[in-house]
Design brief:
By secondary structure, this protein is α+β, with helices and mostly antiparallel strands. The chain folds into two domains: 120 residues, Aminotransferase class 4, branched-chain amino acid transferase, N-terminal domain (D-amino Acid Aminotransferase, Chain A, domain 1, 2-Layer Sandwich); 157 residues, D-amino Acid Aminotransferase, Chain A, domain 2 (Alpha-Beta Barrel), CATH 3.20.10.10. 29% of the residues lie in helices and 29% in strands. The strands form two sheets. Strands 7, 8, 9, 10, 11, 12, 13, 14, 15 and 16 form a ten-stranded mixed β-sheet that branches. Helix 5 links the parallel strand 7 and strand 8.
Length: 283
């Protein structure tokens, strides 16, 4: 597999960063994951705009020239890694670069950022998309700027490990008694035909797939309510689903062993799945 690192292409085994890189030392960076479908980068500009917002929030310098080069880098990696057919993902990570001395404050704005881009094959989990997943809840112990897609992911890693230990198929995070999102996806619930989801807030990362859901809902005349859902109320939902770049639209058929709705994927989830798939196959 070929990767891009700071202006050059390497095999994945050869690529390396300095030990003084601030991403390695401090988690000082942002990232994006972009879906590749038959060689096309799905909603690339939306991902890059979210990247721009994250870099602005972290006050990370990044030139217009560097940003303009990213789509071409990604397209080359898709071709070089033979992802023109089938599905894959692009992983983009930008850190504040390598700097000495090791101090918490930002280094000089002239410090070159570290830019890493990787492309990998991806196979969606069709079984969980068709049958739904059995989710668990965990406390949301992340920091208060979840709206920035940073590489500080230890709480997410811990949630994923809990999911693995409990053989679950999804995680819902709870902050102050309310469901915020998953560790890698947003959460939607259906109550009496209305689609509910946590409102835009520093406590969630507004997903690209989340925006696609809003588009489909508007086209299909599905009402949307941006409002927190309590951990108790979500158990009474007709449907619950997780949405994300590599999650797609995944129905949740139980939470902490409690059945959701009829215990199988519902009509709203199936409609949204069809709408997402149509867009991914044509855009």
């Amino acid at each position: 597999m070929q990767v891009y690192l700071n202006g050059r292409y390497y095999s994945r085994e050869e690529a390396a960063i300095p030990v003084i890189d601030r991403g390695f030392l401090f988690g000082d960076g942002i990232y994006e994951v972009i879906r590749v479908v038959n060689g096309r980068l799905f909603r690339l500009e939306a991902h890059l705009k979210r990247m721009d917002r994250g870099m602005k929030g972290l006050e990370m310098p990044f030139s217009e020239k560097q940003r303009a080069e990213l789509p071409g880098v990604m397209e080359k990696l898709v071709a070089d890694n033979r992802l023109q057919k089938g599905e894959g993902t692009i992983y983009l990570q930008i850190t504040r670069g390598a700097a000495l001395p090791r101090t918490h404050a930002y280094p000089s704005a002239e410090t070159p950022p570290t830019v890493l881009v990787m492309a990998s094959p991806f196979v969606p989990d069709k079984e969980i998309l068709e049958k739904g997943g059995h989710a668990i809840t965990v406390p949301d112990i992340r920091w208060a700027r979840c709206d920035l897609k940073t590489i500080n992911l230890l709480p997410n890693v811990m949630a994923a490990q809990e999911e693995k230990k409990r053989s679950a198929g999804g995680v819902l995070m709870i902050r102050d008694g309310y469901i915020t999102e998953g560790y890698k996806n947003n959460v939607f619930a259906v109550f009496d035909g209305t689609l509910w989801t946590y409102p835009d807030s520093p406590y969630i990362l507004s997903g690209i797939t989340r925006d696609v859901v809003f588009e489909i809902a508007e086209k299909e005349d599905i009402p949307v309510k941006l409002s927190p859902i309590s951990a108790k109320e979500i158990l009474k939902a007709d449907e619950v689903m997780l949405t994300g770049t590599i999650t797609d639209i995944q129905p949740v058929v139980s939470i902490d062993g409690r059945r959701i709705g009829m215990g199988h994927p519902g009509p709203v989830a199936k409609l949204l799945q069809r709408g997402l798939r149509q867009r991914m196959d044509t855009e």
